[in-house]
Amino acid sequence: MKILHLLSQTHLTGAEVYAADLCKYQMSEGHECFIISDTLSVKSGAKYIPMSIHDRKYINRIRNILALIKFCKTQHIDLIHAHSRAGSWLVNVVRFFVNIAYVSTIHGRQSVHFSSKRKNVYGKRIIAVCEHLKGHIKGELNIDENVYLIRNIIDEH
Q1: What is the pTM of this model?
Q2: How far is CA 148 from CA 84, 103, 124, 135, in A?
Q3: pLDDT value of position 93
């Protein structure tokens, strides 16, 4: 399977470490992984493609959408795993043009406001990294989708 991990990282965070460790595991199982993010500070063995995901300017979002559509089609991506709200937002648009499975991981509390409670950008399959975030997603963001608890991976090597 070809898996794209999509992050909006401008500096090292737990989401990046989580995604890198997940890529290591997925590749050890025979999958091919790609990471698209603003920056990448940790090594994972996955092919890294830099893209300004965090920049929410209208023209940048259009560029990102077009680039992601092209990337997914040319690389024959089977699954997109978004690790940020910005990444999840982009995937929701990209999926209008390419039929790809999609999962989101929420690594931290999300801002609670009218639009975040009204529109679920995280998809139908959401991973929370702790019980507190699972409660936050269900209770405060009013997202009534499948939310799975998968704690952060600890690399013992």
Answers
A1: 0.87
A2: 16, 11, 11, 11
A3: 93
